[in-house]
Structures are given as C-alpha cells and as structure tokens.
Amino acid sequence: EEQLVESGGGLVQPGGSLRLSCAASGFTFSGYSMNWVRQAPGKGLEWVSCISSTSSDTISYADSVRGRFTISRDNAKNSLYLQMNSLRAEDTAVYYCARGQSLDPWGQGTLVTVSS
Amino acid sequence: QSALTQPASVSGSPGQSITISCTGTSSDVGGYKYVSWYQQHPGKAPKLMIFEVSKRPSGVSSRFSGSKSGNTASLTISGLQAEDEADYYCRSYTSTSTLMFGGGTKLTVL
After folding, report:
1. Within 10 Å of residue B86's Cβ, how many Cβ atoms?
2. Does B100 reach chain A within 8 Å, measured CB to CB?
C-alpha cells in the first residue's frame, strides 16, 4: 500500500523553528517529485513547496514561505522534510505531504501551532 | 499568488448532477493541462478525484468528470449520493512553476 506519514508537528513560539518529516512507503520514492501543502484551521488548502525527484533539479516555494522554509529529501531514507524557521502565527496549520504533480496520495497531516 | 476562484457552496438532491467551476487565468488554468480536483471530508486528508483536467484515477467513480474551457475548469458530479457531501478543491500548475489551489467549494447533498 502506498503510504505517506507526516511527523514533527507541535506547539512552537513565534520566531521559532520546527522540522517536519514525511516517511514514504509502498512505492519508489526516488521516482517522484514531492510536495508540502498546508491547511489553516477552518480554511482552504495552500500549496507550500515542491521538490523534484532528484533534489538538485527543481525546488519551488509559495511566496508566503520563501526565505523562511526549506524543503529537502533523502531518497536513501524514503523521506521528505520541511525545515520551518521564523515561524509566524499565520503558519498555524495542518501540514500534509503529497506525491507528484497530481498530489496523490496524501499523508494524514501533522498539526503545527505557532503561539506564545 | 491569488487563489483560483470557486463558488463557496453548491447543493443538489440525490440523483441530480452538479457542476463546480474553477476560474483562473491564462497563466494557470488556461495555460496548462495540469488541473486537478480533490475531495475532502471533514477531518480527513484530501483525495485526488480528477487529474490532468479530465482523467480519473483508478478507483474513483465514473460519476465524477472534469473539463476545461479557456481559463475555467469544471468538475461535474452526476447521480449525486449522500457520501459526495464534502469540500472540493481545484488545483492548477502555474507559469511560475508553482501550484495554486482554488478557495474550495462546500457541496451539500439535500
């Protein structure tokens, strides 16, 4: 079964940092680009970042996180990461990882709360 | 990066058909075949329903179909069922090599 499992969410103070992880299983992780998508409480979906299958090819970010968030991957560990720095209250959301251009499948999400 | 425009809500009775629109620009919806639709039930992760404008993933009911005309994409659900009640989001690739979602549409099955 193709599966994505996020971890690393939690409560962090404004200005703080957090690193999210996404563990992939059931498919050839190194063959796909990967994305992070977030959803603030009661709000819609917002694309955050994408990384190509080989990391060195293409990385892109939403304007709202560029310069603060860094996406990376370790194909040997079948894992995707999101390093989040200078966190703001508006970054509070459930963060999902999703596979490929079509965003399929999605993980169950991990909640990040930025609050003092 | 403004969101693609979707109606906030649509509704229909069981057995009826409904269509959800998703309007963008020539730099996103109108310029690429990479338009997808996602279904999200409360408290659950989104699920891919349509990709590349009109293709259905394996396991998705044929009651779901997608199309595009100019800068507007559409999702049609025929033979509405109670379990179709959910939030629906469109998503497009953009000219800046990013992805953009619509604001979401809440479907109510009356």
Report:
1. 20
2. yes
Residues 6 or more apart whose Cβ sits within 8 Å of residue A38: A45, A46, A48, A91, A93, A94, A95, A96, A112
Closest-CA residue of B relative to A103 is: B48
**pLDDT score of A104:** 96
Give the largest CA-CA distance in chain B: 40
User: Tokens standing for A1?
Assistant: 């079964």
**What pLDDT score was predicted for residue B1?**
59
Q: What pLDDT, in 10s, does the model give residues A19-30? A: 999 999 999 999
Which residues in chain B touch residue A44, judged by CB atoms under 8 angstroms apart? 3, 89, 101-104
Give the torsion sign (CA, B7, B80, B43, B53).
negative
Phi and psi, residue B31, nearest 5°: -100, -10
pLDDT the model gives residue B3: 86
In tens, the pLDDT along A56-69 reads 678 999 999 999 99
